[in-house]
Write a structure and sequence with these properties.
Order of helices and strands: EHEHEEEH
CATH class: Alpha Beta
Shape: globular
CATH architecture: 2-Layer Sandwich
Largest sheet: 5 strands, mixed
Number of helices: 3
Structural class: alpha/beta
Number of strands: 5
């Protein structure tokens, strides 16, 4: 039975530049697609958030540049919780799949590993 499932991921950047934000977002999206063996047609929408210290680029632009033309994309600000992780890009993919929730592979890279250590991905295997 086809269901809509959520797949989470996050990464961080060293600096607030368009180049850094787009490169890190691209790396995260590639890892999410690879670890979940996704076809872009299965992705119905993607919700991106960034922390308040990132405003040099919309992370959704990285998806558009990758050819995700028909995927609904949305960017927003993360809640600024005191002491929270800085320079962080988070993503929630909604995908149509017959796989179970347990079969979804969430991906956390760079400093974002601290958010969900059980979902840490070796960056060498993420590309």
């Amino acid at each position: 039975m086809m269901r809509c499932r959520g797949i989470r991921g996050a990464t961080t950047v060293a600096e607030n530049t368009s180049k850094a934000i787009l490169a890190a977002t691209r790396e995260l999206l590639v890892a999410l697609v690879a670890h979940n063996t996704l076809d872009v047609d299965e992705i119905t929408s993607v919700f991106f958030t960034v922390t308040d210290d990132l405003d040099a680029a919309y992370p959704a632009l990285a998806a558009r540049q990758a050819g995700w033309e028909q995927v609904a994309l949305l960017c927003a600000r993360e809640i600024p919780v005191p002491g929270g992780l800085t320079r962080c890009i988070r993503v929630l993919l909604h995908v149509n799949t017959e796989r179970t929730q347990e079969q979804m592979r969430h991906v956390y890279l760079r400093e974002a590993v601290m958010l969900r250590p059980g979902f840490a991905v070796d960056r060498a295997s993420a590309s």
